[in-house]
Task: inverse folding
């Protein structure tokens, strides 16, 4: 028996008037998910423990089987593992987004975050901007590291964990009340705008109709994590397929193998087909027991408020990953169980994460369950809710209860 998780980041949503009261998942054409739904267990699961922030960090830890209340030490340290930063026990890691701030205001604190991803800036462009930040914000005990796209890293040696606000939570809001209380972190963010706003990379982006990545934004502070090995926890060898440093960092911390897919970029136009092919190869040729396929696109489209593109991302997951993976494994006579779910909702109406339960589909190729007409939030709610048990759901996948 082989095992898969198809993690559709931020896919769950709320009913939208423009979709006739449907959610993007309901509105999307998903023939493969709906075909599986009829013979699968459909339900709801709470992936974010009560009292914890609804981030992809806590939620994905939960789905992979790690209780966030026990293992979570902050988001950025998980990304540091992916980048290969060797953190000391008293080092503090921060996510450093390169964001788009409004420009018409005179004072930095009066500006607004227009885009937390700067139009999903390429890693190549962002790396040039990070070099400018490294030079212009040089401070003893502070080091910048390049990540992926808009997602980068600041390490504060012998630092302190401070409370900071995720940029995607305050889109279009005045930033003043959300700036760091720590005076040096705030000073660095303010100076980053001076360094980046008219940088040649950003001037070129403006000419090409793209938003400038004109400020750093620090958030997600935490200390070095210590995850129990996935194989020790579950008795299965595991592989991760993701373009996002957070997920790759979780895999590093859990002793899972990161599988690189050319063209996978964390955006809408990622290499869906390549991820499907890598998953099948990992299970049928490379001997892995378990593969975690992560696609960031629905979450990014939710943050950007793009309804049609969120629907399109869901349809491409269905068409280019779920369909081919199930077909190829079945043709090869491979028994498998597959769990399909989001990590958390990213509703279009709020453009950020919420902690509401999410729908899941659990398919077993060796037996039929009494399922539902389709896989979506509405049909999930009609079934049982595994409240507060998100980190136990993967055991349900492995045990086939």
Result:
């Amino acid at each position: 028996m082989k095992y898969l998780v198809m993690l559709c980041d931020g896919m769950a949503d709320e009913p939208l008037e423009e979709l006739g009261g449907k959610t993007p998942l309901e509105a999307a054409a998903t023939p493969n998910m709906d075909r599986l739904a009829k013979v699968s267990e459909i339900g709801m699961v709470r992936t974010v423990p009560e009292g914890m922030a609804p981030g992809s960090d806590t939620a994905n830890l939960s789905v992979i089987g790690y209780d966030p209340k026990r293992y979570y030490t902050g988001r950025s340290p998980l990304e540091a593992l992916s980048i290969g930063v060797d953190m000391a026990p008293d080092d503090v890691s921060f996510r450093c987004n390169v964001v788009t701030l409004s420009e018409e205001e005179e004072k930095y604190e009066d500006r607004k975050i227009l885009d937390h991803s700067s139009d999903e800036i390429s890693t190549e462009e962002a790396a040039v901007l990070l070099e400018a930040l490294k030079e212009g914000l040089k401070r003893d005990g502070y080091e910048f590291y390049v990540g992926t796209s808009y997602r980068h890293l600041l390490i504060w040696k012998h630092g302190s964990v401070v409370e900071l606000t995720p940029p995607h939570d305050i889109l279009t809001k005045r930033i003043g009340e959300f700036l760091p209380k720590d005076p040096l972190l705030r000073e660095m963010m303010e100076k980053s705008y001076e360094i980046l706003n008219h940088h040649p990379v950003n001037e070129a982006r403006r000419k090409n109709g793209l938003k400038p990545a004109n400020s750093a934004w620090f958030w997600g502070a935490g200390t070095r994590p210590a995850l129990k090995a996935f194989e020790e926890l579950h008795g299965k060898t595991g592989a991760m397929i993701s373009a996002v440093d957070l997920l790759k960092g979780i895999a590093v911390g859990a002793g899972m193998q990161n599988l690189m897919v050319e063209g996978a970029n964390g955006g809408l136009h990622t290499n869906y087909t390549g991820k499907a092919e890598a998953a099948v190869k990992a299970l049928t040729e490379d001997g892995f027991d378990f593969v975690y396929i992560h696609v960031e696109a629905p979450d990014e489209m939710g943050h950007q408020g793009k309804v049609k593109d969120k629907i399109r991302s869901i349809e491409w997951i269905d068409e280019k990953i779920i369909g081919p993976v199930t077909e190829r494994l079945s043709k090869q006579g491979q028994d498998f169980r597959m769990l399909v779910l989001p990590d958390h909702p990213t509703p279009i109406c709020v453009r950020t994460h919420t902690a509401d339960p999410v729908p899941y589909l659990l398919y077993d190729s060796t037996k039929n369950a009494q399922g539902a007409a389709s896989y979506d939030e509405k049909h999930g709610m009609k079934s049982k809710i595994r409240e507060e048990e998100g980190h136990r759901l993967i055991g349900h996948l492995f045990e086939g209860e």
The chain has a mean pLDDT of 95.
